């Protein structure tokens, strides 16, 4: 099990940028697939982005493709979500998630149930 702490959220105007960070502790970070999800008020939690163990391969929800970038630094035990060209509809609580999968090199996971460990969430509010 790994402990995750999300940070970097805030209030930003439409068109602006934010970078979210998620620091992991208590596990071998390079053996965890990582993902970002978000939950808007009144809606279910949805997939945003995922990254492989090495960080070489990523995937995104269609709604954020071309605007968001997920990356990781295995030496620092951190996964990032760079969010550019933010829109009002990006307003949500953002959660990072981890899945222990040491043998699954090159695989990506996009389902909420694929992940075992979650951060506490960080609020992102985009004003129109």
Q: Mind explaining what this structure looks like?
A:
The chain has 128 residues and is mainly beta. The protein contains no helices and eleven strands. Strands 2, 4, 5, 6, 9, 10 and 11 form a seven-stranded mixed β-sheet that branches. Strands 1-3-8-7 form a four-stranded antiparallel β-sheet, with no helix packed on it. Strand 7 and strand 8 form a beta hairpin. The mean pLDDT is 96.
Strand content: over 45%
Decide which structural class fits the backbone: mainly beta
Q: Return the average pLDDT rounded to an integer.
A: 96
Give the C-alpha Rg. Answer: 14 Å
The overall strand count is 11
Largest sheet data: 7 strands, mixed
Low-confidence stretches: none
Order of helices and strands: EEEEEEEEEEE
Shape: globular
- In DSSP terms (H or I, runs of 4 or more residues), the helix count works out at 0
Helix content: under 10%
Q: What gap, in angstroms, lies between the N and C termini?
A: 39 Å
Summarize the helices and strands and which ones pair or pack.
Layout: E1 3-7, E2 10-13, E3 18-25, E4 32-39, E5 46-51, E6 58-60, E7 68-73, E8 78-83, E9 92-100, E10 117-118, E11 122-127
Parallel strand pairs: 2-11
Antiparallel strand pairs: 1-3, 3-8, 4-5, 4-9, 5-6, 7-8, 9-10, 9-11
Concise overview:
The protein has 128 residues and is mainly beta. It contains no helices and 11 strands. Strand 5 (46-51) and strand 6 form a beta hairpin.
């Amino acid at each position: 099990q790994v402990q995750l702490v999300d940070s970097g959220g805030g209030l930003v105007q439409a068109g602006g940028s934010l970078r979210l960070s998620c620091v992991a502790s208590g596990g071998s970070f390079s053996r965890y697939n990582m993902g970002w999800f978000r939950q808007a008020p009144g809606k279910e939690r949805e997939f945003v982005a995922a990254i492989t163990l090495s960080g070489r391969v990523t995937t995104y929800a269609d709604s954020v493709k071309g605007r968001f970038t997920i990356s990781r630094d295995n030496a620092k035990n951190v996964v990032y979500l760079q969010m550019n060209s933010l829109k009002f509809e990006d307003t949500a609580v953002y959660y990072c998630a981890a899945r222990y999968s040491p043998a699954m090199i090159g695989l990506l996971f996009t389902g909420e149930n694929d992940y075992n460990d979650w951060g506490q969430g960080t609020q992102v509010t985009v004003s129109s």
